[in-house]
């Protein structure tokens, strides 16, 4: 959830600060930076977002670590912000993850005379390293400390009088960047250093790295050297910058035509590999969280409608209900933008331990989910910085659609459909933009908002409501049109806005549900390829055939964006949320 960075090279503090800004989407309630300064550390910590902040009079140096926080243990206070120092002030660390046994460790350190200044679980790491430093090298002291930790960590550590960065990961992401002239970077993900280098080394869980003019990787348990292979990243720095857009959310909405196209350009052999795993399975589950779970629901409709394959979508956090059905004949496909979501990883681990095959659809290369999978399809949507999923959601739908077409023996038709959908999206996004900007003005004071849809448009309705509520804080509920009369209709009052997402197949029944609401005073906003008389306002979208759920969600993403802007909220960083949810 938090973002961590480390930099070794000229102007390290400035670079670490810049990197931290790129990782702010991972957490933004406080931030901090530390760099060695004459045998101790210069530390700055601040509450709030790093966005427009500047560094204040830091010393020059060639090593720095920094952290942007999403609080788990301890309130949002300056003393709980990272980096944390050891008692003797010689060790500085930044940590992402949760030290589950921190209470025991803290108690035993207190008995040894250590004092604690924060309420975090992370501070124990700095003091453990100090404890183990007696008689050991810095890297060995870090290694011995890591062996005492239960839970998850990505950690970057400095010692005040050593020109070295020691970092490690277990259950939380950490990537190394190799720059020019002995420059090194460490980040929670590669966006932290993509401005400086495209050469990355992905650490495995249970590995640590020592950066000091050169790079060595060790196995934490044994202390033995481990193999590593630098990889060239395809993402570029421009993709991780806002450019002329006021917010990443708007930029990423507009990147969807490209993302759909990139998804359609999946290597055919990869799609064939996943298709044959699916054909060979007796039972298939699609699993994810948040928007990715909505993609799973939509995928289950695609697969049943287009190729007659039954797939069960499950919330990763609820996998235990289905665990008894995971076995050697089962395929569990994880869907995730980050590939680091803890609930999803937990579900996939449970499935693998029972012999199930693991598939995945992810955006972040070499992410934990991708590494864990027997077969993985990469979304290639480029970095998604806004906390809300937009292009990653439509990219996931595109890949699931392509899979369904491939399983129906129509791979080329699937590709062609996505190519057309991309072109339609390109043409219509600016038109939706104008209409949604003005609709947002009239809806910005709404208390509740409902979104209905049927079949695959039901999945689009769930996603639409999530977009609206998470960014505008207006209560929004998405549900299947048929469910209205089973409860929610009680909430409809004079003027309640209700969005009906309709496709040509679902139109008759969706319309009758919309009329049920209209008769009780609702204002109906129809998103449809046809403007029907029942709609108080029609958002006319092109008919993208089987890709309609993609098309239906585009104007609502824009509506959500403009609702946030109207309400003076930051669309890129909604309150209480983080992009990569690495805690259960
Ligand atoms: C899942 C997810 C996102 C959501 C938010 C929190 O992430 O629920 O859908 O937008 O960022 O996490 P992922 O597994 O798709 O990375």
Structure, explained:
The protein is α/β, with parallel strands linked by helices. The protein has a domain at 3-239: Aminohydrolase, N-terminal nucleophile (Ntn) domain (Glutamine Phosphoribosylpyrophosphate, subunit 1, domain 1), CATH 3.60.20.10. The chain has helices at residues 12-22, 102-111, 123-133, 138-146, 248-254, 256-264, 268-280, 290-307, 342-353, 368-372, 391-407, 411-443, 456-472, 507-518, 548-566, and strands at residues 3-8, 30-37, 40-47, 63-69, 84-85, 91-99, 151-159, 165-170, 175-178, 184-187, 199-202, 207-211, 215-219, 231-232, 283-288, 311-315, 330-336, 357-362, 375-378, 448-453, 475-480, 497-501, 523-528, 537-540. Helix 6 (256-264) runs antiparallel to helix 12 and helix 8 (290-307) packs antiparallel against helix 13. The longest helix has 33 residues, at 411-443. 1-O-phosphono-beta-D-fructopyranose (F1P) binds next to helix 8.
Keywords:
single chain, 584 residues, alpha/beta, six-stranded antiparallel beta sheet, binds 1-O-phosphono-beta-D-fructopyranose
Write the layout of secondary structure elements.
Elements: E1 3-8, H1 12-22, E2 30-37, E3 40-47, E4 63-69, E5 84-85, E6 91-99, H2 102-111, H3 123-133, H4 138-146, E7 151-159, E8 165-170, E9 175-178, E10 184-187, E11 199-202, E12 207-211, E13 215-219, E14 231-232, H5 248-254, H6 256-264, H7 268-280, E15 283-288, H8 290-307, E16 311-315, E17 330-336, H9 342-353, E18 357-362, H10 368-372, E19 375-378, H11 391-407, H12 411-443, E20 448-453, H13 456-472, E21 475-480, E22 497-501, H14 507-518, E23 523-528, E24 537-540, H15 548-566
Parallel strand pairs: 15-16, 15-17, 17-18, 18-19, 20-21, 20-22, 22-23, 23-24
Antiparallel strand pairs: 1-4, 1-10, 2-3, 2-4, 5-6, 6-7, 7-8, 8-12, 9-10, 9-11, 11-14, 12-13
The chain binds 1-O-phosphono-beta-D-fructopyranose (F1P).
1-O-phosphono-beta-D-fructopyranose is lined by residues 288-292, 336-338, 341, 344, 387-389, 579, 581.
């Amino acid at each position: 959830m938090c973002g961590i960075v480390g930099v070794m090279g000229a102007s390290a503090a400035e670079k670490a600060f810049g990197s931290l800004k790129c990782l702010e989407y991972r957490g933004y309630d406080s931030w901090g930076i530390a760099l060695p300064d004459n045998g101790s550390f210069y530390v700055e910590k601040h509450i709030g977002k790093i966005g427009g902040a500047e560094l204040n009079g830091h010393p020059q140096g060639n090593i720095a670590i920094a952290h942007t926080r999403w609080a788990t243990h301890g309130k949002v206070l300056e003393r709980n912000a990272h980096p944390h120092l050891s008692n003797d002030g010689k060790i500085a660390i930044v940590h992402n993850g949760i030290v589950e046994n921190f209470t025991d460790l803290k108690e035993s350190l207190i008995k040894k005379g250590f004092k604690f200044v924060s309420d975090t679980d992370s501070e124990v790491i700095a003091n453990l390293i100090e404890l183990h430093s007696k008689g050991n090298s810095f890297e060995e002291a870090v290694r011995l400390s890591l062996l005492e930790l239960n839970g998850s960590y990505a950690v970057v550590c400095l010692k005040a009088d050593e020109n070295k960065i020691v970092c490690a990961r277990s259950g939380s992401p950490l990537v190394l960047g190799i720059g020019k002239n002995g420059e090194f970077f460490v980040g929670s993900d590669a966006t932290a250093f993509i401005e400086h280098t495209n050469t990355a080394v992905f650490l495995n869980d249970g590995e640590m790295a020592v950066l000091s003019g050169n790079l060595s990787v060790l196995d934490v348990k044994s202390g033995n050297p481990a193999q590593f292979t630098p990889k060239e990243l395809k993402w570029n720095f421009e993709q991780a910058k806002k450019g002329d857009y006021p917010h990443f959310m708007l930029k990423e909405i507009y990147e969807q035509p490209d993302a759909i196209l990139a998804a359609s350009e999946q290597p055919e052999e990869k799609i064939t590999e996943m298709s044959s795993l699916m054909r060979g399975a007796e039972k298939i589950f699609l699993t994810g969280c948040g928007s990715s779970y909505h993609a799973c629901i939509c995928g289950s409709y695609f697969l049943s409608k287009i190729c007659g394959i039954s797939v069960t979508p499950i919330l990763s956090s609820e996998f235990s209900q289905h665990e008894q059905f995971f076995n050697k004949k089962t395929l569990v496909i994880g869907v995730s933008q980050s590939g680091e979501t803890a609930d999803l990883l937990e579900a996939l681990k449970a499935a693998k331990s029972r012999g199930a095959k693991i598939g995945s659809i992810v955006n972040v290369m070499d992410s934990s989910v991708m590494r864990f999978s027997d077969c993985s399809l990469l979304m290639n949507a480029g970095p998604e910085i806004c906390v809300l999923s937009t292009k990653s959601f439509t990219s996931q739908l595109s890949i699931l659609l392509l899979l369904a077409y491939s399983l129906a023996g129509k791979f080329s038709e699937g590709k062609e459909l996505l190519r057309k959908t991309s072109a339609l999206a390109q043409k219509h996004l600016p038109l939706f933009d104008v209409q949604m900007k003005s609709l947002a003005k009239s809806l910005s004071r709404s208390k509740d908002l409902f979104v209905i849809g049927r079949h695959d448009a039901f999945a689009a309705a769930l996603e639409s409501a999530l977009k609206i509520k998470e960014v505008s804080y207006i209560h929004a509920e998405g549900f299947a049109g048929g469910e209205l009369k089973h409860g929610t209709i009680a909430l409809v009052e004079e003027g309640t806005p209700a969005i009906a997402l309709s496709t040509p197949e679902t139109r008759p029944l969706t319309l009758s549900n919309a009329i049920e609401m209209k008769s009780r005073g609702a204002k109906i906003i129809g998103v449809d390829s046809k403007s029907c008389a029942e709609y108080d306002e029609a958002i006319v979208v092109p008919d993208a055939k089987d890709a309609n759920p993609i098309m239906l969600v585009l104007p609502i993403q824009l509506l959500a964006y403009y609702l946030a802007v109207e309400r003076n909220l930051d669309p890129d960083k909604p309150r209480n949320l983080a992009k990569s949810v690495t805690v259960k």
